[in-house]
Amino acid sequence: MKKKLLFAIPSLSAGGGEKSLVTLLSQIDYEKYEVDLFLFNHEGIFMDLLPNEVNVLPLPESYKVFSFPLLRAVSGLFLRRQLQLINQRFLYACKYRGASNVAIREQSNWKYLSNSFENLNKAYDVAIGFLEKSSTYFIVDKVMAKKKIGWVHIDYDHLGMDPDFDIHYFKKLDHIVTVSEECGEILKRRFPSENHKVEVIYNIVSPLLINKMANLVKEDVYQKNKDEIHILSIGRLHPQKGYEIAIDACKKLVDSGINIKWHIIGDGEERGRLTHLIKENRIEDHFKLLGLKSNPYPYIKQADIYAQTSKFEGKSIAIDEAKILQKPILITNYSTAKDQIQDNVEGLIVNMTPQAVMQGILKLIEDHQLRSQFEMNLSQKKLGTESEINKLYQICN
What pTM was estimated for this model as a whole? Predict the structure, then answer.
């Protein structure tokens, strides 16, 4: 008999965790596992990449109505005679506006949002909250399962969450999975009573799939002019990604006479601020926000340098993908950077300042031998992590 698995995640919009889930689902043995997926939002660029075997559960009507803008939600809940939820919706709106930290806001709002969900009427062998916060809270509060797993994709200490809130949920999990050894150590230090539950499963990346998708587009995605250097960064437009550092470094490079174009694939709440910074620095012709791309791999393959100016990360899938496509890489020295690349072997790890980023990129541009050495070193590494699925099987069994 097949084991019944449930995965929960807010959406399949752009994001490393979302992409990681889609890749993981593509690797599961559906002869042995029956998989349901619960999403809080059924839109997103990765929806079309879900395997046909995955059963996406319908959204509860009460949650759909609760999620509407306030006045429409209150009207809809009144018509459904869900008067208790009206009070919860008002409290949700007040708390949503009141908390400045997005992570704390999501935590504190769960007690109101959760009332719009009924318990799932199906029992599972394993339920997996595939992203920190609401995904984990959902499987703890609303799902019947023999085993429950929470998945943390980030350096917990940098996300700004309230550990006193999370410990209540972590105590009810059988396993807490994270994506790198450093992230695992951070969780063990933060939650010492639960450290025996912490497991590391790397994000699954498939070189075969990535190379196949990279070659789907033959034309020049950047429309390069002669002697231009094209730099690429991938990630949601969020303060975590440190794009203001990239903008400042780009300005310094342009002012130094370097002919570069720096491209960003991603979208998010920082678009307005970053657009203003780009205009303020007068680098509109050199720093481009490309938006979301369901297939970013031709952009990685055709870039000269992959750069990531993050302030913190768990384990960036985009960096792993750039390694597979043998790009010279530059990243800032966030806490898990050394889990991602070997400095001066696969790329450069530089200080988290515009000057250091500028100097590192300049080094990669001018030192052709160094870039070639990084590319050769990456070509000789076994970078696929498809076998990580076996760690999940072991936990599930």
Answer: 0.82
